[in-house]
Amino acid sequence: MHNEIQRESMEFDVVVVGGGPAGLATAIRLKQLANEQGLDEFMVCVIEKGSEFGAHTLSGAILETRALDELFPNWQEMGAPVTVKAKEDRVYMLGKNSTKRLPNGIVPSSMHNEGNYIVSLGNVVRWLAQQAEAMEIMLFPSFTASEILYNEDGSVRGILTGDMGVNARGEAKPSFEAGYELLAKYTVFAEGCRGHLGKRLISRFHLDKDRDPQHYGIGLKELWEIDADKHEEGVILHGSGWPLSETGTTGGWFLYFAEDNQVSFGLVVDLSYHNPHVSPFDELQRLKLHPLIRPILEGGKRLSYGARALTKGGLNSLPKLSFAGGVLVGDDAGFLNPAKIKGSHTAMKSGMLAAESIFKALQAGRQHDEVTEYQTAFENSWLFEDAHSARNFSPAMHRMGQWMGGAFTFVEQNLLGGKIPFTVHDNAYDYAQLDKADHAYKPDYPRPDGKLTFDKLSSVFISNTNHAEDQPCHLKLTDPTVPITKNLPLYAEPARLYCPAGVYEVVADENAPHGARFVINSQNCVHCKTCDIKDPSQNITWVTPEGGGGPNYPNM
Questions:
Q1: pLDDT tens for residues 377-416?
Q2: Helix spans in 176-259 (H)
Q3: What is the distance of C-alpha 324 from the center of its chain?
């Protein structure tokens, strides 16, 4: 269908794909540089698949303001929604009924948050979008980038936005609108974790050659409003241990006391986990029953829920950043600092470095070539130091486990300042880690009570997830038989469990071959990408659904 359609095209100096912290920081920095040179005709556009900027943004979040300070030195006077200063860190190791608080002196220095802020990253992104709009950057929310457009020499020349109004059989509905060709001298890919175009670019240009495999986690978050007398604004809780320890899974939880008696509560589960019976969503629910967490949330009101994958391989897994005609920034490359569990300041800085390098190339009259200066700028920046000092965190945790990995991290971060003279590698792919289901321990997940613990569908409901009816399924199976013939007998079809939104089901059906059907409820999808990462057969590909679909996260 793509080929017969007459498409309109629009030309820009730079097209940015993705309107999160990385994409907006890129666009703003480009426009700042153009304004300094008096270039009024300099055209930058940012496309964002969410219904508005910030709709799909989900993070803890503790913001280190280093990149924001550089982008807008007077952000406080400008009214940025960055107001709750971090007051105190408390780090815990949990047993099923025990709570052990770690003395501050043995907590890795990367986990200390003095000078940082508790924020809603979604609201920070909305604010950045307002600044971008005031600078006359063209913002296109509700537009997806569905395909990459190439020049005849193989360089990237822009992207194609997704067609609107196509039915599930791929035919045009009466509401059909063809996608646009957005053409640029350089294209910046800032899609966030496991971007579906970023993934293609990494493969096409071999950007991950000689790098460790990328590693991922799934982050799940709930926003709660709690009793004022339990609220300690500015206090930050982190912890690990139970309930993940029960299945030998690594990861950690967070609880941040934000403004207006609100609490951000969440769990990050490393997607290198081994037990196919693990359900990250149910681990989050069960964590709330712990004697440390329960009294804080009990009697409160759950306001929102969401989930997304995050890249946590760090420097060892970082692909080459540039290719002919474009660059990768933010989590599309994997700039999150796993030791700090922070990726917003790194995403923004990567975008700013990319902007400065691209602007120089444009000033020299270049286009569609490879901006190798971006890689050099990265290697000469504080962003590289930030990444280099944390390079061993994820592989040490994966290979040594929580206790030994934690001890190694303490020595490396606190005693040696991240300057240990060797690098630990983790060359195992997350999807290849699952044990066979028949001899894996099956955790006991409690039934939801609807007050403190909930089911997936009522959770998806408060994420305001919505997709236009009757559109092609955006979760593509390479081989539709694999879920029932391979994944079900070997791994109890783990998509039923790792998906945090109830998208995948195995339904008994005596008329179906093998007595069961694999059902995809794609309208529930919160765009977390976990299925694309963790499917043991690498049989599921996530592509963008129609623009404007997916979650609409408030204050997340």
A1: 999 999 999 898 878 776 766 666 666 666 666 666 666 6
A2: 196-204
A3: 25
Q: How far is CA 168 from CA 171, 406, 524, in A?
A: 7, 49, 16
Q: For the full predicted model, state whether its pTM sits above 0.90.
A: yes
292: number of Cβ within 10 Å: 17
Report CA-CA distances (Å) from 134 to 12, 120, 139, 404: 18, 22, 11, 50
Asked if the bond preceding 243 is cis, omega within 30° of 0, the reply is: yes
pLDDT of residue 1: 47
CA atoms within 13 A on the CB side of 18: 30
Q: Is the dihedral of CA 266, 271, 273, 276 positive or negative?
A: positive
Looking only at the bridges linking them, the beta strands covering 235-241 and 88-94 are parallel
Distance CA 336, CA 24 (A): 17
- Please give the structure tokens belonging to residue 22: 């990385």
SS3 427: coil
In single-letter form, the type of residue at position 329 comes to V
| β strands within 145-206, DSSP E | 145-150, 156-161, 164-166, 172-177, 181-189
Dihedrals φ, ψ of 27, to 5°?
-65, -45
Token reading at 346:
């790194």
Cβ atoms 445, 282 nearer than 8 A? yes
| Pairing mode of beta strands 540-542, 475-477 | antiparallel
**Cα–Cα distance for residue pair 350/330, rounded to 1 Å:** 6
Pairing assessment for the beta strands 172-177 and 145-150 based on DSSP bridges: unpaired
Q: Print the SS3 string covering 525-554.
A: CCCCCHHHHHCCCCCEEECCCCCCCECCCC
* Average per-residue pLDDT for the chain: 94
Residue type, 390: A
Q: Please return the burial class of 41, using the count of CB atoms within 10 Å of its CB with bins 0-12, 13-18 and 19+.
A: exposed
CB atoms closer than 10 angstroms to residue 419? 10
Residues written for the chain: 556
Instruction: Find residue 160's DSSP bridge partners.
Output: 147, 181
* SS3 of residue 185 by DSSP: strand
Q: Are 336 and 342 in contact (CB under 8 A)?
A: yes
CA gap 310, 193 in Å, rounded: 5
Q: Is 235 helix (H, G, I), strand (E, B) or coil?
A: strand
What are 199-258's pLDDT values in tens digits?
Answer: 999 999 999 999 999 999 999 999 999 999 999 999 999 999 999 999 999 999 999 999
Helix (H) or strand (E) holding 251: strand 251-257
Residue 486, token pair as written in the block: 């391979």
In this structure, the number of other CB atoms found within 10 A of the CB of residue 354 comes to 35
Tell me if 156 sits within 8 A of 148, measured CB to CB.
yes
